[in-house]
Design brief:
Helices cover 45% and strands 14% of the residues. It has 18 helices and 14 strands. The strands form 4 sheets. It has a 6-stranded mixed beta sheet. It has a 4-stranded mixed beta sheet with strand order 9-10-8-11.
Length: 410
Amino acid sequence: MRSMLYVSISAIAVVAAAASQAGTVKYYGDFDPAPLAAMQEVIADFEAANPGITVEFQNFDHEGYKTSIRNFLTAEPPDLANWYAGNRMAPFVNSGQFMDVSDVWEENGLKEALASALPSMTIDGKQWGVPYTYYQWGIYYNKEAYDQVGAKVPETWDEFIANCALFQEAGIDCVTTGTKALWPGAGIFDYMNLRTNGYDFHMALANGEVPWTDDRVKATFAEWAKLVEPGYITANHAALDWQDAAALLVQGKAANYVMGNFAVAVFKDGGMTDDTLGFMAFPTINPDVPRAEDAPTDTVHIPSGATNVEDAKKFLAYLASPEAQTKINAAMGQLPINKDASVNQDDPFIAAGFELLSTTPGGIAQFFDRDAPAEMAKIGMEGFQQFMVQPDQLDNILERLEKARGRIYK
């Protein structure tokens, strides 16, 4: 396998090979060390299976990559480029900078194998890249707190709220979160809205197609108010970082935390074990709404200016395979999207997440700050935080968000 090429942030905008040689695929990515090593193996396996093709990979740091992708897609694009699903890829699709790869999906049965991510990879009925990893969000809970009050793991929102009264009586926060950095509150909003109104409505709201003053949005906040108004959420969450809230769950001072699977390491560093830490899907609010989940998804795309499209498509098909997705996600500690891939069954949270996402019927959202434009996401998350502190200000909050919608989506 060819040696890996590394490029400094300052050079990213001008990095490009002079001309693509036949059989050479230029691939730009932004991997951390562990997934980088796994991608090296995936590339080596692909090259071994395709002796006439060489993948020339260049790795960049995350922040440099995010700020410079617009430059290299316009100037001298590679044949493959890392990015993200859903609304994060939409600007490059709409500007004609990502190539339609629906044929790769059709010819390799990916609509079935990658079914859970199909909605987030589809715009105008076409697929614009291949997803290779995601991770679940949901509710992590303290089993000992549940045992202490005699609560059962709920399946419905009504059951969850009934449990909250038991926790409050015992002096335990039913739900903890830390919204000092705003984004944890967006996870709660996502699930409240996904469970109340469903994936299509949630995405329409994120796309600016629905007024924030719509009655369906108000219905979401009415369900959320069942948590907020009785004081079931950690009172000083606006002053807490997410790790501070994690400590409350570890200590048994809180029972539930809406969070992503990356937090498991923090819970366990605090002393929790598989015997004391549990995971559940966010409960059903509206039984008529198909279950959708938050699962931020990383993807690979073919830029429209690629010079070796044929071989780039072969690599995408390989990256979508169970073998490649098993290998790279084992290194990342995340979840493969191919339903026939394998995960570490000894890790109950990885196993539960794979089952949850592989069987999601209602669609995969990317998380509010990925699904909505950056400015709208910030204003929205400020509103979510304020609602959890001042629920009586809901009308003012929604009017402010609606005013922002009218300005931002022009």
